[in-house]
Write a structure and sequence with these properties.
The structure holds 3 protein chains of 3 kinds. By secondary structure, chain A is mostly helical. Chain A has helices spanning about 5-10, 15-25, 30, 35-65, 70-90, 95-115, 120-140, 145, 170-190, 195-205, 205-210, 215-240, 250-265, 270-300, 305-320, 325-345, and strands at about 155, 245. Chain A has one domain. In chain B, about 75% of the residues lie in helices and about 0% in strands. Chain B starts with a helix and ends in a 14-residue tail after the last helix. The chains are: A mainly alpha, B mainly alpha, C alpha/beta.
Chain lengths: ~350, ~290, ~240
C-alpha cells in the first residue's frame, strides 16, 4: 500500500517547510494591492477545512477500510454544535471546536456500533441513508428553536486579536491552519503507533488481524469515532468562517465532495488530503469558467454543472489513477527510481 | 377509522412505488451482487426522456414503451462501457463509480431540463373507485403495474434458463463461466432490466410528486428500506418489503412523528433491518465461507 | 486413438509469479490422464490454463482447433467440462437449478434432458435432494453435483480438480468407481488432478508427473506404478 512512508520516517523536512510556506501566505496581504485578497484568504480557509474533513474520511476509508457516504452528517453536527454554542451559549469560537470534536466523536462511536456488523456495500448504504436523512432532520420543528429550522443560524464573524493587525479573514486562515496542523500531526502519529498499525491490519485482512489478537470491534468503532470527530472539527470551523449554518449546506452532495477530495488526493495518503481539499474548492470556484470553456470548446447548448464534472472525474480516476494524484506521484517516483536502478545494473 | 383506511390505502400506493424501486435494486443485486446508488437518478433521467417525448407530441403509451426500451439499452450500455472495466475492482471503487453516476445523471438532467418542477401525466384517471374517497383508479393502477412487473420478473428468474444463468453468474462468476455462461453479458442484462424497471417506477412516481431532478432521492432511500426489509436478494420479498415500508411510513407519519421526519424513519428502518435481520424478513441467509 | 487435447509450451502466471514452465501435454481420446505432483507443483494451474482462467502463454488445441485465445465460456461450450477445485457449487440455487443451468448453454435441449437422466442414474442421491438448496449438501454430495453439472454439458473431455478433496475414504471410492463408469460408458475422456496418487494411478492409463511447474516424467500409469524409486521420491509411497 501507499502507507509505507508513514512507517519509515518521522515528520520530514519537506512537510515542515510546506506548512511554513502555508503559514507565510497570509503575509502577502500586507504587500498585496489586490482588493480580493480577503476572498483568497477565505478560499484558503475552505481548502484547509475540506482538507481536514477529507483527513477524517481518509482515516476511516483509506486506513481502516470502512466506507462512509455519511460524513456530511458529522460535518453538519460539528457545524451546528459550534453554531449553537456560540449563538446560545455565548461561547468564544475557539472553545467550540473541542466540543464539536467530542460531540462528533461520540456520535461517530454510536454510529460505529451498528457499522461493525456491516461491510462494504451495506455500510455504504447505511451511511448513504444517513446523509440523505440529515438535512430533513435539521429542519425538524421541535428543534427549530436551536437549529433555526430551514433558515439556519446566522453568526458573527469573530474579530482577530488587536495586536495581530490581521484582517478577520487572515486571522481565520491561521485558525484553520492551526487546527489542520494539529489534526494532521495527531493522525500522523496515530498511524505510526501500534494502534495505527492495528487499524491498517483491520483493513488489509480483518480475519488475520483478529487471530493476532486485534480487537476488531474496538478498532473499527474507535476509527469511526475519531474519523467523525475530525470531520466534526472541520464542520465547526466551517460554521465559524462562513458565519452561517443551514440544513441544505449539508446534503449528500457534501459527502460526495469529500469523496471526490479523497479519491483525487489519494486513498490512504495524508498529503493527498490537502491536495483533495484544494481541489474541491478550486473546482467549486471555477465551475462556471470550466462550464463556459466547455460550452465554447464543444459548442454545447447547456451550462455544465460542477456535479457532472465531479462525476466524470471520479470515473476517470477510478480507471486511470486509482491511487489518486498524490498516489500517482508516489508511483511515478517509484517507477523512476526503479528505472534508474535497472539502468545502472545493465 | 376512515382516516386510518385512507392512510393505509395511500401507504399501499407509495408502497407500490417503493416496491418498484426496490425491484430495480434487487435486479442489480441479484445479477451483480452490487447495491446501485444511482438507481434513483437513472429512473429520474428516464422519466425526463418520457416527458420530453410526450412534450414532443407522442401518445402516452408510445412514450412509455420507448422510454422503457431506451432505459434498457442505456442500463445495458452503462454496464458495458462504464462498469465493465471495474468488474474486478474493490468495493470502494464500485461505490465511488455509482456515486459518480448519480452525480452525472442528476447534474445532466438539471442542465438539460432545469431544476424547475414539471407536471407529468398519469395514464390512470384520478377518479374515485368506489365513491367513498378511499381508493382512486390512479392508486389501483400503480399497485397493479407493480404486481404485474413482479409477476413477470419472478417468472423470468424462476422459469427461464436465462434468468437462472443470471442468478448463477451473480452468485459464483467463475463457476458460472465453467458452465458456459457468458457472465459479463449477464451483468449487462441485469443492468438493462434494472434500468427499465427504474424507468417504469419513475413514470409512476412523477404524476404524484411532480418531475424534478431530485424527485427520486427520498424515494430511493425508501426503496432501499423496502428491499432490505424483504431481503435484498429476493424480488418477491422486495415488493412485500416495499408495501410494508409504504404503509408503515404513512401510518407512523400520520400518527406518531409527522411528515417531517420521514427520511429519519427510513434511516431507522435501514439500520434496524441491517442490524437485526440482515437477510430481511423473507431472505435466506447464506453463510459466508472463508 | 487420436489426440483430443494438446498443449505446447504452456506457461502461466499469478501476477508476477510464474507457476508453469513450458508444459507439453497430450490427452488421447477416450483415456484418463492423471496429473500428479506435490502441493504447488502446478496441477490446478494447468487445468486453469487450459480453460484460460489464468494469465498464460503457449498454445492449446482441442480436437484440432486452436483454443489458446478462446474465452473460458467458449472452451466449455466446445466440450471441455471443468470440475473446479472446491467444487464451485451454486450454494443458493437448488440442486435441480444447479443442473438445469446447462440448458442455458446447450442448444440441444432433448440431449440435455437425456443427460439429466444420466446424471440421476449415476448419482441417485441428487434426485432425492433435487429441490434442496445446494449449499446444504454434504461435501460428497456437492462433489457429485459438480461432476453432475459437468456431465450436463455433454462434454468430450472432463477436467477434474481433486475430486477426493476433504471426503471420507468410502465416498472417495464410490466417486472414483462412478468416474470409471462414466469414462467407459459415456466416451468422456478425463484429465484428473489428484493428491491421492495411488487412487489416481488406479483410474488413469496415462500419467504426467509435475514438479514446480515442470513435467518431470510422463508415460503409461503402469510404468509409474511399478517404478518404486519414482513413486518414493515424487508421490511419497
Amino acid at each position: 500500500m501507499t502507507t509505507s512512508w508513514a512507517m519509515k520516517r518521522g515528520v520530514g523536512v519537506t512537510s515542515i517547510l510546506f506548512w511554513i510556506v502555508l503559514a507565510l501566505l497570509p503575509l502577502i496581504g500586507f504587500v498585496s494591492e489586490s482588493s480580493s485578497f480577503d476572498y483568497y484568504m477565505f478560499m484558503g480557509q475552505s481548502m484547509l477545512i475540506y482538507a481536514i474533513a477529507v483527513l477524517g474520511l481518509n482515516l476511516l476509508i483509506g486506513f481502516n477500510g470502512q466506507i462512509s457516504l455519511g460524513h456530511s452528517a458529522f460535518f453538519a453536527l460539528g457545524a451546528y454544535t459550534a453554531a449553537i454554542l456560540m449563538n446560545f451559549g455565548g461561547w468564544p469560537y475557539w472553545a467550540t471546536l473541542p466540543i464539536a470534536a467530542v460531540v462528533c466523536f461520540a456520535a461517530g462511536l454510536l454510529f460505529g456500533f451498528p457499522a461493525l456488523k456491516l461491510e462494504g456495500h451495506y455500510l455504504a448504504l447505511a451511511t448513504f441513508t444517513l446523509a440523505i436523512a440529515v438535512p430533513q432532520l435539521l429542519k425538524y420543528k421541535a428543534i427549530a428553536g436551536w437549529t433555526g429550522g430551514v433558515g439556519g443560524v446566522l453568526l458573527d464573524k469573530p474579530d482577530p486579536p488587536e495586536w495581530t493587525r490581521l484582517s478577520p479573514d487572515q486571522w481565520l486562515y491561521y485558525v484553520c491552519l492551526a487546527a489542520a496542523i494539529l489534526l494532521f500531526w495527531v493522525v500522523f502519529n496515530l498511524l505510526r503507533s501500534r494502534n495505527g498499525r492495528a487499524l491498517m491490519a483491520v483493513r488489509d485482512h480483518s480475519m488475520a488481524a483478529s487471530t493476532m489478537g486485534i480487537d476488531l470491534a474496538r478498532y473499527k468503532t474507535i476509527a469511526f469515532g475519531i474519523s467523525a470527530g475530525i470531520t466534526g472539527v472541520a464542520g465547526g470551523l466551517s460554521a465559524i468562517t462562513v458565519a452561517y449554518v443551514a440544513p441544505d449546506s449539508f446534503t449528500l452532495q457534501l459527502s460526495i465532495s469529500f469523496l471526490v477530495g479523497l479519491v483525487v488526493g489519494g486513498i490512504a495518503s495524508l498529503p493527498g488530503c490537502l491536495v483533495g481539499g484544494v481541489f474541491i474548492v478550486l473546482v467549486q470556484n471555477s465551475a462556471q469558467s470550466i462550464s463556459d470553456w466547455m460550452k465554447a470548446t464543444f459548442a454545447l447548448r447547456y451550462d455544465v454543472p460542477a456535479w457532472a464534472i465531479y462525476g466524470v472525474l471520479l470515473l476517470l480516476l477510478m480507471y486511470f489513477l486509482p491511487a489518486g494524484i498524490a498516489g500517482g506521484f508516489a508511483q511515478a517516483r517509484t517507477w523512476w527510481t526503479m528505472r534508474g536502478r535497472r539502468g545502472r545494473q545493465q | 377509522m376512515e382516516f386510518f383506511l385512507q392512510q393505509f390505502a395511500a401507504g399501499l400506493t407509495s408502497g407500490a412505488i417503493y416496491a418498484c424501486v426496490a425491484l430495480g435494486l434487487v435486479m442489480i443485486y441479484v445479477s451483480t451482487d452490487h447495491i446501485n446508488f444511482a438507481q434513483g437518478e437513472m429512473a429520474m433521467f428516464a422519466t425526463y426522456l418520457a416527458w420530453a417525448m410526450i412534450d414532443a407530441g407522442l401518445p402516452y403509451w408510445v412514450a412509455f414503451g420507448l422510454t422503457v426500451l431506451v432505459a434498457f439499452a442505456g442500463g445495458f450500455a452503462i454496464q458495458r462501457v462504464i462498469l465493465k472495466p471495474l468488474e474486478r475492482a474493490p468495493v470502494l471503487a464500485l461505490v465511488v463509480s455509482f456515486i459518480a453516476l448519480l452525480s452525472i445523471f442528476n447534474a445532466v438532467a438539471g442542465m438539460i431540463w432545469s431544476y424547475t418542477i414539471k407536471q407529468f401525466p398519469s395514464p390512470f384517471p384520478s377518479r374515485d373507485l368506489f365513491g367513498n374517497g378511499l381508493v382512486s383508479v390512479q392508486q389501483l393502477g400503480v399497485v397493479g403495474v407493480t404486481l404485474v412487473m413482479l409477476g413477470l420478473l419472478t417468472a423470468f428468474f424462476r422459469f427461464t434458463t436465462l434468468g437462472l444463468a443470471m442468478r448463477a453468474a451473480a452468485q459464483n462468476a467463475d463457476s458460472a463461466r465453467l458452465m458456459g455462461v457468458r457472465v459479463s453479458w449477464m451483468l449487462a442484462l441485469g443492468w438493462g432490466l434494472a434500468a427499465a424497471i427504474g424507468a417504469i417506477a419513475g413514470m409512476l412516481v412523477a404524476p404524484i410528486v411532480f418531475l424534478d431532478p431530485n424527485m427520486m432521492t427520498g424515494i430511493l432511500v425508501y426503496g432501499f428500506a423496502g428491499a432490505l426489509v424483504g431481503g435484498i436478494g429476493n424480488p418477491m420479498g422486495a415488493v412485500a418489503g416495499g408495501f410494508i415500508v409504504g404503509v408503515l411510513e404513512n401510518l407512523v407519519g400520520s400518527y406518531v412523528i409527522g411528515n417531517e421526519l420521514k427520511l429519519t424513519f427510513a434511516l431507522i428502518i435501514v439500520i434496524g433491518v441491517l442490524l437485526l435481520k440482515p437477510a430481511g424478513l423473507f431472505g435466506r441467509v447464506i453463510v459466508k465461507r472463508v | 486413438m487420436t489426440s483430443l487435447l494438446k498443449a505446447n509450451g504452456l506457461s502461466a502466471w499469478y501476477g508476477p509469479i510464474r507457476a508453469l514452465y513450458d508444459l507439453d501435454l497430450v490427452i488421447e481420446q477416450g483415456g484418463v490422464t492423471a496429473l500428479l505432483g506435490a502441493n504447488g507443483a502446478g496441477k490446478t494451474t494447468t487445468l486453469r490454463a487450459i480453460c484460460n482462467m489464468v494469465r498464460r502463454s503457449g498454445t492449446t488445441s482441442f480436437l484440432g482447433r486452436d483454443i489458446s485465445r478462446r474465452s473460458t465460456e467458449d472452451i466449455v461450450r466446445m466440450g471441455v467440462a471443468h470440475v473446479p477445485e472446491g467444487r464451485g457449487t451454486f450454494v443458493a440455487l437448488t440442486v435441480e437449478e444447479n443442473l438445469r443451468l446447462a440448458f442455458h448453454t446447450r442448444r440441444d435441449h432433448a440431449a440435455a434432458r437425456r443427460d439429466m437422466d444420466l446424471v440421476f442414474d449415476y448419482f441417485p442421491i441428487l434426485k432425492e435432494r433435487l429441490h434442496q438448496q445446494a449449499g446444504t449438501l454434504s461435501g460428497g454430495e456437492q462433489q457429485m453435483l459438480a461432476i453432475g453439472r459437468a456431465l450436463m454439458l455433454g462434454p468430450k473431455l472432463m477436467l477434474l480438480d481433486e475430486p477426493s478433496f476433504g471426503l471420507a475414504p468410502l465416498v472417495v471410492r464410490e466417486i472414483f468407481q462412478i468416474l470409471r463408469r462414466i469414462n467407459e460408458h459415456e466416451q468422456v475422456s478425463m484429465l484428473i488432478v489428484e493428491q491421492n496418487a495411488a487412487l489416481a494411478l488406479d483410474l488413469a492409463d496415462h500419467v504426467y508427473l509435475l514438479e514446480t511447474g515442470k513435467v518431470v516424467t510422463s508415460g503409461p500409469s503402469a510404468l509409474v506404478r511399478n517404478d518404486e524409486a519414482l513413486r518414493k521420491s515424487y508421490l511419497g509411497y
